[in-house]
């Protein structure tokens, strides 16, 4: 199983979106190096943990995230 590790500073507050069934979709933006473009990530987290991290993880905070990546296909409806 592959695992990713992300270290950097949050470039905005964490956004939570309700995904039903006791989970949130988490949207974060992390800047790994100074003066570079941020990298955007989406993840799934359980409701209790999501509420806690959204309360304490704010813009500018240095974070370390570890997890298992998954890739979803996206199809443009216009083409």
Structural class designation: mainly beta
Which sheet architecture does the biggest sheet show? 5 strands, antiparallel
- N-end to C-end Cα span: 34 Å
Q: Quick check: average pLDDT?
A: 82
The arrangement of helices and strands along the chain is EEEEHE
Let me know the number of strands.
5
Shape: globular
**Low-confidence stretches at least 5 residues in length (pLDDT < 50)?**
none
Notable characteristics:
79 residues; 1 helix
Structure characterization notes:
With about 80 residues, the chain is mainly β. Helix content is about 15%, strand content about 45%. Strands 1, 2, 3, 4 and 5 form a five-stranded antiparallel sheet that branches. Strand 2 (about 15-20) and strand 3 form a beta hairpin. The N and C termini lie far apart (about 35 Å). About 5% of the residues are buried. The model has no long low-confidence stretch (mean pLDDT about 80).
